[in-house]
Specification:
Blueprint lengths: L21 E4 L2 E4 L11 E2 L3 E6 L8 E6 L6 E4 L13 H4 L7 H7 L4 E7 H17 L3 E7 L1
Parallel strand pairs: 7-8
Antiparallel strand pairs: 1-2, 1-3, 4-5, 5-6
């Protein structure tokens, strides 16, 4: 399924949010809405994560933008099960860019290329489908298989 053409509810900007909504306790990092509800032994981070609904959502899939002090922001989106390598889904080509954003619209107007780095096991299981996906989307690509 293609991403919706209209702008979605989540932010299309990578502007820095209020910092420090992550806390580590119970051996896990948690997104914190209420710092008073966090154990006093928790380790707070200066980094933050902004959750939102994935534009590929069919069953509650989410997206995240991570903001860190090392100035490395990235976006993660979930795609419904068994749809990631469906050529009609553009998540592997444009999912890193917010739906409706100017950077995404610009990227969609240009030829795309990708370097795919996967291990041998993933390649054995999905390599042909990965190649077929990028071929079908007319994305110039190279697959680097690591041991």
């Amino acid at each position: 399924r293609n991403a919706p053409s209209k702008a979605s509810e989540y932010s299309t900007s990578y502007a820095q949010p209020q910092r420090g909504n992550l806390a580590q306790y119970d051996d896990t990092w948690h997104i914190v809405d209420d710092p008073d509800a966090v154990p006093s032994s928790a380790n707070f981070s200066d980094c933050s994560v902004e959750p939102s609904t994935s534009e590929y959502a069919e069953g509650g899939e989410q997206a995240w933008i991570s903001h860190s002090e090392i100035s490395f922001d990235y976006r993660v989106v979930e795609v419904p099960r068994n749809e990631l390598l469906n050529p009609s889904c553009d998540a592997l080509v444009f999912g890193h860019l917010a739906d409706g954003s100017l950077p995404r619209m610009m990227a969609e107007s240009l030829p795309q290329r990708r370097l795919i780095v996967i291990d041998e096991t993933v390649h054995d299981l999905y390599g042909a489908r990965v190649h077929a996906y990028f071929e079908a989307r007319e994305v110039e690509h190279e697959i680097l298989v690591l041991p």
